[in-house]
Amino acid sequence: MIPLADRPLDAEIARILRLFDEAGAVLVDLPVLLPAERLLDLYGEDIRARAYTTRDPEAGELMLRPDFTVPVVDRHMASGAEPARYSYAGKVFRVQEPGSNRPPEYDQVGFELLGADDPAAADAEVFALIARALAHLGLRAAMGDMALLRAAVTGLKTSAPRKAALLRHLWRPRRFRALLDRYGGVTPVPPARAALVAAAREGRDLLKGAGPAIGLRTREEVRERIAALVADAEEPPISEGERALLDELLGLKAKAPAALTRLRDLAVDMAAIEPAVNAVARRLEALAARGVDVEALDFEGSYGRTSLEYYDGFVFGFYAEARPDLPPVATGGRYDALTRALGGGRAIPAVGGVIRPALSLALAEPQREARP
Amino acid sequence: MTLRLALPSKGRLMEKTFEWFAERGVRLERTGSERQYAARAEGIEGLQPVLMSASEIPRELAAGRVHLGVTGSDLVREQIPDWERKVEALVPMGFGHADLVIAVPEFWVDVDTLDDLDAVAAAFRARHGHRLRIATKYHRLVREFLRAHGVADYRLVDSQGATEGTVRHGTAEAIADITSTGETLRANHLKVLSDGTVHRSQATLFRSRMAAWDEAASAEYRALCERLGIDP
């Protein structure tokens, strides 16, 4: 049940939970301790720099939850009927940068919608609900869509391995750029690789005398990669035109309606993004139908590219413009691919958002005090 | 005794450190028995040498329990988050050279750069169902280095010793470890990536920013700097 409110923060949490409750959410209680192995598998080694680790004599390494996504999906996979709406409130724990004054533990109140058929409607439902909970604060909302970038990369006129490599680094902008420059012929092929490819083309057995095969990676895997490098060297560069279009998409920053017009223009030259652009259009219509002022929404082509959460579609955040020192008051997005990774191949459409109640409370208080 | 100076308590690192100070007119000598880890500086009343394990010196510097300390720059970077806020590197001492490098099996002829390592890590994960393992004891340095270079799909496995043997023993696919000549790597059929040097370490005199720098300690420090010929 919704907790009794005797502290202002508890009251704020209860207020938000009540809204989520009215939206049909089931309030769930989720574990704080998660198996480290599972998070490492999902997020990679970087999670160690972000999450607190502890140890259980029997269960081994555990992590204090850095967010609620994994436990929510686990809980749903175990028992949920679809579509399902969940709400939750509790602490998350994140190691902060040295010298940072941001708290290592703080509350989140969240809403997740799993298994809904109509993605545009589901995205709009979650966004509108979070927007309603924060309406009194006059926050700036920004959004993006990782599906656009994915579609643009998938549509490049280049080999499947090159597309796969770019897609794998969507969330690492610097590495993505380095790969794109390499594939575009902007940066030269490293000399050692050029020499390797030349030697392989002469038909020499490069593994002869190269030392014993130690470790799990086999000689066969080395040979396969040499073959892949030779094939890649034959690939024509990704054209300047295609790279320019990608840059235009990544640099797009406008109010949502203007951004949609730009996206439609881009789709004339980048046909691959058309379905994703149509999805953006349907989402904006669904948002408008829920009473969201889409004219005021900021749309950014690169939004969500540096978050840890691995959102892979719609992404959004709410910001206090007068307080650029604060992290976003709320964030959210779609994470279908994450459910596939967690569910052992079974993907569920999933979208959700979290509010930091300490921030929404702090931002509301001066306004309350200012009133007579 | 106002200025506490932490020195490595054992082996060549200790000998070289004592020599380094002696060459600059600061004669350090051990007092008591070999096992007491006590020392004094001849003719400098206010300087208190403290002998301890080189791997504990970063912690003592960061906590401000010593004013100065001699240890490897790799240990300071690995053990103290955002180390420059806590300590200042005064002077590299020109010995104890060791490079922290990423090394892979020699027969990986297709791998020469971090870019290659990243590509191989992706293929390895798809093929073997788990991330490519890199054995190291320098978790922070290696993780930050690999993140900065956009290497993904690896995981670090802890190795506190004999790290070069882990690949041959099947507990890792690659390593990140300290090497001075590369001989041990070669003996274990490993090679260093051409852009895989994480850090070039050497023995360094550090100053703690966290210690109590009262007037006496500051005066003593300035006098010591003058003897050593370094800028305070």
UniProtKB/TrEMBL annotation, chain A:
Highest taxon, organism lineage: Bacteria
GO molecular function: glycosyltransferase activity; histidine-tRNA ligase activity
InterPro entries per record: aa-tRNA-synth_II, aa-tRNA-synth_II/BPL/LPL, HisRS-like_core, HisRS/HisZ
Coiled coil regions in record: none
GO cellular component, one term: cytoplasm
Keyword Transferase attributed: yes
Classification via Gene3D superfamilies: Bira Bifunctional Protein, Domain 2
Domain Aminoacyl-transfer RNA synthetases class-II family profile stretches: 18-372
Record's keyword annotation contains Cytoplasm: no
Binding site for L-histidine: 67-69, 94, 108, 112, 305, 310-311
Leader sequence residues: none
PROSITE patterns documented for this protein: AA_TRNA_LIGASE_II (PS50862)
Keywords of the record: Glycosyltransferase, Transferase
GO biological process, one term: histidyl-tRNA aminoacylation
Oligomer and partners: Homodimer.
Protein name stated in the entry: Histidine--tRNA ligase
Species of provenance: Meinhardsimonia xiamenensis
Species classification: Bacteria, Pseudomonadati, Pseudomonadota, Alphaproteobacteria, Rhodobacterales
Automatic annotation (TrEMBL), chain B:
Record's protein name: ATP phosphoribosyltransferase
Pfam families associated with the record: HisG (PF01634)
GO molecular function: ATP phosphoribosyltransferase activity
Domain of life where this protein originates: Bacteria
Recorded metabolic or biological pathway in which this protein acts: Amino-acid biosynthesis; L-histidine biosynthesis; L-histidine from 5-phospho-alpha-D-ribose 1-diphosphate: step 1/9
Keywords linked to the UniProt accession: Amino-acid biosynthesis, Glycosyltransferase, Histidine biosynthesis, Transferase
CC annotations in GO: cytoplasm
EC class (word): transferase
GO biological process, one term: L-histidine biosynthetic process
Reaction catalysed by this enzyme: 1-(5-phospho-beta-D-ribosyl)-ATP + diphosphate = 5-phospho-alpha-D-ribose 1-diphosphate + ATP
Keyword Repressor belongs to the record: no
